[in-house]
Amino acid sequence: ILNVEQSPQSLHVQEGDSTNFTCSFPSSNFYALHWYRWETAKSPEALFVMTLNGDEKKKGRISATLNTKEGYSYLYIKGSQPEDSATYLCAFSDRGSTLGRLYFGRGTQLTVWP
Amino acid sequence: DGGITQSPKYLFRKEGQNVTLSCEQNLNHDAMYWYRQDPGQGLRLIYYSQIVNDFQKGDIAEGYSVSREKKESFPLTVTSAQKNPTAFYLCASSIVRTGSNEQYFGPGTRLTVT
Questions:
Q1: What's residue B26's pLDDT?
Q2: Do A32 and B94 touch (CB under 8 A)?
Q3: How many CB pairs lie under 8 A apart between chains A and B?
Q4: In Å, how far are A23, A38, A94, A112 from A16, measured between CA atoms?
Q5: Among A13, A55, B63, B101, which is disulfide-ready with B81 (CB 3.0 to 4.6 Å)?
Q6: B20-to-A92, B32, B59, B111 alpha-carbon distances in Å
Q7: Alpha carbon distance A63, A57 (integer Å)
Q8: Residues sharing a CB contact under 8 Å with residue B30, sequence separation 6 or more, in sequence order
């Protein structure tokens, strides 16, 4: 089982604050890094899939970066809003595993207070 | 609308009974997955299938069984051999051309065994 670590485990911020969280993964045999957002009472939804070292992805106020050599990815949220409250999951796939198989971290639970 | 359906949303069973969780997708995806989530844990892979009539054990397959007789359906049976069956179960699917394809999730089934 490959280890994917996310930090912090939970985060409480005020509306308008910017925030970021970290995902660490094995740097060898890297294939892809996924970020998902999981809102309460909904299904997890994909935010980004990154495959190349140095990749940066952006969707609205949310962006992500990837460093495959050192095995980490950052997710940034600029000007957090209450609707950003969710659990953010990262997942890793490696070249040695069956295609499509992901290893998930435990998630970072974000709460944004109005 | 394309998507993944899981039924029922809540399921209650007595200890010692087998129970089958339904997962159906109309996305025409080849791969399907079953995950389990427990409080404080990440998503853990139970079983996955890349093609009809074929499936592989994930990290926590003991006490579970699956079948994949049709592309769109991947039911999970929680047997009486599963020591701690009470959990939240998520089904997912993806195209499996590469390991970078995002997974699409169903709404989940919360199973309570007493």
A1: 96
A2: no
A3: 66
A4: 23, 21, 36, 9
A5: B63
A6: 29, 16, 19, 10
A7: 5
A8: B50, B51, B71, B94, B95, B96
